[in-house]
């Protein structure tokens, strides 16, 4: 069973996360298939841009907790591949995005969200922190909003996601965005993308190793084990009063 479907039409390669049984969680297999799809799009001379979307009501729920979480270095590799791909990557979201899924969303160059979309940084509620996903997110997010949502884990919708810089626009703008990308030259798109991702790429160079170590330490902690167990058992963790 394929977890990432690929199709191409009029210069746009679409990669669809198709693992709705686990809410498109970032399993090792899904990451491997997504990396393969991105590599194929990069090598395809006819592809001007990549559209990343999803099946089911969840874009991506983050790490697959039933696998014990995802190797943080693999998530860094995936996000960095998106950021450094020589072709623009556009995310189309019309569902829920949580935890590591927000890092994948943040790595994309442009993103649109429909009315059914919802977002939440849930890591602090699990005994974790938004460690490696901060690499593409903090250079792009409003700082005060990042502090609020990182710390509280509150859920918010598409309009707020646009306001704080997590999402580019509403879903109604997808057509004009893709049409504009189709009109770009390969060289023009690649060099323009390099300009607008400069701060994000510097964050990867500077902070990736330290955040991978932080993520690994947190996932191995007793507090995180309790948080993840409570989540899977659908109960409150022991620290909630």
UniProtKB/TrEMBL annotation:
Family: Belongs to the enoyl-CoA hydratase/isomerase family.
Pfam families from the UniProt entry: ECH_1
Taxonomic lineage: Bacteria, Bacillati, Actinomycetota, Actinomycetes, Kitasatosporales
Name under which the protein is recorded: Enoyl-CoA hydratase
Coiled-coil region: none
Matches recorded under Gene3D superfamilies: 2-enoyl-CoA Hydratase, Chain A, domain 1, Lyase 2-enoyl-coa Hydratase, Chain A, domain 2
């Amino acid at each position: 069973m394929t977890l990432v479907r690929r199709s191409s039409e009029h210069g746009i390669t679409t990669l669809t996360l198709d693992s709705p049984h686990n809410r498109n969680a970032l399993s090792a297999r899904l990451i491997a298939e997504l990396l393969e799809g991105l590599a194929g799009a990069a090598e395809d001379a006819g592809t001007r841009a990549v559209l990343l979307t999803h099946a089911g009501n969840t874009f991506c729920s983050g790490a697959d907790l039933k696998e014990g979480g995802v190797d943080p270095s693999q998530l860094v590799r995936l996000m960095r591949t998106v950021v450094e791909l020589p072709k623009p990557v556009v995310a189309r979201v019309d569902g829920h995005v949580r935890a590591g899924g927000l890092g994948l969303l943040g790595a994309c160059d442009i993103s649109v969200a429909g009315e059914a979309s919802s977002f939440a940084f849930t890591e602090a509620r699990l005994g974790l922190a938004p460690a490696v996903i901060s690499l593409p997110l903090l250079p792009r997010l409003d700082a005060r909003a990042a502090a609020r949502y990182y710390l509280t884990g509150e859920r918010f919708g598409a309009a707020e996601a646009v306001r704080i810089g997590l999402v580019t626009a509403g879903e109604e703008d997808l057509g004009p965005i893709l049409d504009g990308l189709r009109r770009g030259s390969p060289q023009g798109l690649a060099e323009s993308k390099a300009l607008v991702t400069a701060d994000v790429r510097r964050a990867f160079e500077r902070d990736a190793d330290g955040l991978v170590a932080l993520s690994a330490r947190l996932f191995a902690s007793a507090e995180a084990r309790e948080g993840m167990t409570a989540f899977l058992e659908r109960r409150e963790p022991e620290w909630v009063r």
